[in-house]
Amino acid sequence: MKKILYISIISALFFSTQVLASLKNTNPNDSIDISLLTCSPGDEIYSLFGHTAIRYQDRKHGIDIVFNYGMFSFQTPHFLWRFILGETDYQLGVTDYQNFATEYEYYGRGVKEQILNLSKEEKNKLFTSLKRNYLPENRVYRYNFFFDNCATRPRNMIENCINGEIKYATSPVAISFRDIIHKYTAKHPWERFGIDLCLGVKADKPISNRAEMFAPEYLYKSFASASIVNITKEKRKLVFSSKELIHQRSIKAPIHNNIPTPLQSFLLVFIITTSLTIYELKNKKNYWIIDLCLFSAAGIAGCIIAFLAVFSVHPTVSPNYLLFVLHPLHILALPFLIYTAKNKRKNWYHIVNLAVLTLFILLWGVIPQRFDFAILPLALSLLIRSASNIILAYKKHK
Length: 398
What we know:
The structure is a single chain. The protein is 48% helix and 15% strand. It has helices at 2-22, 79-85, 97-107, 120-133, 152-161, 177-184, 189-198, 209-212, 216-224, 262-283, 288-311, 329-332, 334-343, 348-362, 375-397, and strands at residues 32-39, 51-58, 63-71, 89-96, 111-116, 140-142, 165-167, 227-229, 235-237, 239-246. Mean pLDDT is 88; it is low at 1-29.
């Protein structure tokens, strides 16, 4: 699948260079349609939310191309590291519509088209802006998942070419970035869990209708009900007509559906931890290997969350209240925890951890951040281990 993606990127860049060179002397106002393409979600993590592109058709000159702001390559040096830091670069690509459509047909993903109700002057301005944006010195941009992506870029380009202003209908229902993410990751529990770990309290704040347009389907709905109001207060629909270009095939259940969900997995961890802890207390022996596994895993997860909160430029990862449960101190304190566990000595770290986790669980419903429910059995497992260590140390010194 990745090979196909790379081939598509290379062929698109080659084709776009040839096409744009041939367009320099054409009249962009004859038999022209410019439309917004909205593509349904795919199965890969980067395609779960769908895609948006701009289609330019000049029937007189036989030109049918797609401007795509979602071009990237995993081969980019330090891609994963840059993505974590929020320093991922995407670029505008241009490809033949037929090649674009063939790829989506191959993956069974639907494509809907909204032909824009633009004047000749607006079409000319938009096409000129897109060509200028495709120049080598302009085509690369700093990607931001919520605020500057493959959906918001086309929207902004279209808005900037309008002689007047686009008026969008407003929805009375307030939703958050996390609400939208949960909608598209409902069938991908581990992806949803991982994203929830990274997103902080800002992802739960109500967002504007405009902010919702980071998701292609929401942009599609906003365009469908939008109007253009010019300087003389004349009003016209933004979308002239809509149609389905490629029908979406029925989506098969993800392969990982047979894998336990995060909640099932951490409930199992909780049951095993509780059972071993009860056995431990009955025999008055400390099985420190349990602490080694649990606290090291929690500490590693905490290091990732803390790194994102402190160093990443992603706008919604900080503050993150999960740091009260998963934090780097678990790793730093681990040698001390094992030493005191072996010797059944009193450990202030366990006392503080017990208090913090107890407060976190009690205040779960009032903390201004939504957590994946799988966090609860994990927090309880850590709490039980701290309580067990405190009890064993108390019994020894009683």
